Amino acid sequence: MLTIAVCELSDPDKLTLAARQGEIDGVVDFEARVELAKQLFGDKPRALFTRVRAALQAAAGDLVRCGYCEDSCADEVEHVWPKSFFPGRTFDHSNYLFVCGICNPAKNDRFSVRHEGNWVDLPAQRKTLGFVVPPSFDARFIDPLAEAPLELLWLDILEKTFMVVPIFDPGTLEHDRAEFTIDTLRLNRECLVEARRNAYTGFRDRIHRYVDCKLNGEAQSLLDQRLFELRRTPHQTVRMEMRRQIDIIDQPHPNIANALEVFD
Length: 264
Ligand SMILES: [Zn+2]
Description:
The protein has 264 residues and is mainly alpha-helical. It has nine helices and six strands; from the N terminus they run αααββαββαββαααα. Bound molecules: zinc ion.
């Protein structure tokens, strides 16, 4: 899971979104605000959201992979901050992530925030207290549109389990956040682990070949094509982790130090 750029929209489209958002924000009662958010998003302007989807597709990269699992094709607009708890972010495009049809329902409305030293599970709070405004904006879930997930998450290449694990020790807030995100998105489901394992083998072989070709004086245009292909392969977290862990994992090539552009 990597940082994903916020999608780029035209100024008129941003104004249209802001106007819709303004309708929601103008409602005083929180429950009514949530209901209106749901209703207006359900009736969202089709032409505008065709453009939003195109912008999200561009932000997702060449292969349009899911912003969470990096495996499946992304085709759903996900609110990272659920509109049922944060209606103020319903028409906020910096809250839109293009994700797949597996990750979107897996995450759904799962969300917790930090309040007075505890994590408040918002769906559970809704069940017990009804519609109350979330007590903070200090999220437990890692927002890939606003943070660098790899500051909290680590992909195990060294032991070759290809599981995503928390970097920080149990008992820390960073560990809690990583664990919650991994669990919510089921980032260690078997098919993803196996896909990362395959991706690692593929990256390693391609990088090895690239370094050989570079050392043998292959034309720059062909080398550039090889770099392009490395950057458009699914599971880019694997490639980023190979860079981060280059001093502790098996080297993809003895002369990798002369070809670090493979990790750019
Ligand atoms: Zn996904």
